[in-house]
């Protein structure tokens, strides 16, 4: 579990094509200082498992499913990436609850510079728009952010100088893809409400059936 508060701006050192997967080697001296085999590190919001570490770098195997559902497949040697270690139980939750399970990719549409911040407009898949609400939380390339405006096919976020300077969001241009993870609580609520409605409908059908049996008597 992560918080979406990026710890380090890392870099892709090399990518080895393994056919149906890829092995990434990434540089991140901070996030690797206490990392070991089997630990998790979020890379642009994607939870990856550490294979090994050495000299401030770590390697991770990325399966085809992850490459297909996120923007990691578009990275190459030299790409900058947002890195975050998992949250520690008992620590402060600075952002929101982030799983590192990307729901889809969006596209940066426009950057609107302000005096002290930037407004960024991001197009998102229609299937994710129902989970994005004004003043709600969303994770963009692993960065926990607050939604400013929410529409059917896009949303906007406001980026402060710290976020622009310390994450890849300061480097993104119009047309660039971004990884999106919506608030998992919204998905659970939707699922539970859907099951509740189904149960209610089933209950109503049973009641109607009992009434019919009474009439037959």
Descriptive report:
The protein has 217 residues and is α+β, with helices and mostly antiparallel strands. It contains 3 helices and 12 strands, in the order βββββαββββββαβα. The protein has helices at 64-69, 161-166, 184-216, and strands spanning 8-17, 21-27, 40-43, 46-54, 57-63, 80-84, 104-113, 118-123, 137-140, 143-150, 154-159, 177-182. The strands form 2 sheets. Strands 1-2-5-4-3-6 form a 6-stranded antiparallel beta barrel. Strands 7-8-11-10-9-12 form a 6-stranded antiparallel β-barrel. Strand 1 (8-17) and strand 2 form a beta hairpin. The chain starts with 7 loop residues before the first strand and ends with a helix. The relative contact order is 0.16.
Secondary structure topology:
Layout: E1 8-17, E2 21-27, E3 40-43, E4 46-54, E5 57-63, H1 64-69, E6 80-84, E7 104-113, E8 118-123, E9 137-140, E10 143-150, E11 154-159, H2 161-166, E12 177-182, H3 184-216
Antiparallel strand pairs: 1-2, 1-6, 2-5, 3-4, 3-6, 4-5, 7-8, 7-12, 8-11, 9-10, 9-12, 10-11
Distance between the termini: 59 Å
Radius of gyration based on Cα positions: 21 Å
Question: What is the N-to-C succession of helices and strands?
Answer: EEEEEHEEEEEEHEH
Would you identify the regions where 5 or more consecutive residues have pLDDT less than 50? 197-217
The total count of helices amounts to: 3
- For the secondary structure, the number of strands is 12
Main sheet characteristics: 6 strands, antiparallel, barrel
Query: In one word, what is the shape?
Result: globular
Q: Which class of secondary structure composition applies to the elements?
A: alpha+beta
Order of strands across the biggest sheet?
A: 1-2-5-4-3-6
Q: What's the rounded overall pLDDT mean?
A: 87
Helix content: 10-25%
Note the beta-strand portion: 35-45%
């Amino acid at each position: 579990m992560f918080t979406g508060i990026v710890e380090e701006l890392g870099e892709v050192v090399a990518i080895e094509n393994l056919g149906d997967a890829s092995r990434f080697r990434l540089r991140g001296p901070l996030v690797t200082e206490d990392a070991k085999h089997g630990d998790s590190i979020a890379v642009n919001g994607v939870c990856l498992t550490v294979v090994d570490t050495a000299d401030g770098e770590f390697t991770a195997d990325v399966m085809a499913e992850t490459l297909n559902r996120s923007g990691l497949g578009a990275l190459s040697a030299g790409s900058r990436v947002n890195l975050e270690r998992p949250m520690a139980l008992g620590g402060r939750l600075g952002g929101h609850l982030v799983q590192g399970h990307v729901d889809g990719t969006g596209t940066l549409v426009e950057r609107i510079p302000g005096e002290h911040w930037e407004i960024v407009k991001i197009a998102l898949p229609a299937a994710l728009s129902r989970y994005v609400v004004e003043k709600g939380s969303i994770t963009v390339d692993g960065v926990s952010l607050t939604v400013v405006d929410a529409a059917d096919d896009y949303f906007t976020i406001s980026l402060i100088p710290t976020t622009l300077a310390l994450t890849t969001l300061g480097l993104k241009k119009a047309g660039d893809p971004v990884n999106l993870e919506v608030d998992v609580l919204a998905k659970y609520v939707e699922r539970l409400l859907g099951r509740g409605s189904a149960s209610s409908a089933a209950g109503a059908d049973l009641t109607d059936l009992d009434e019919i049996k009474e009439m037959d008597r």
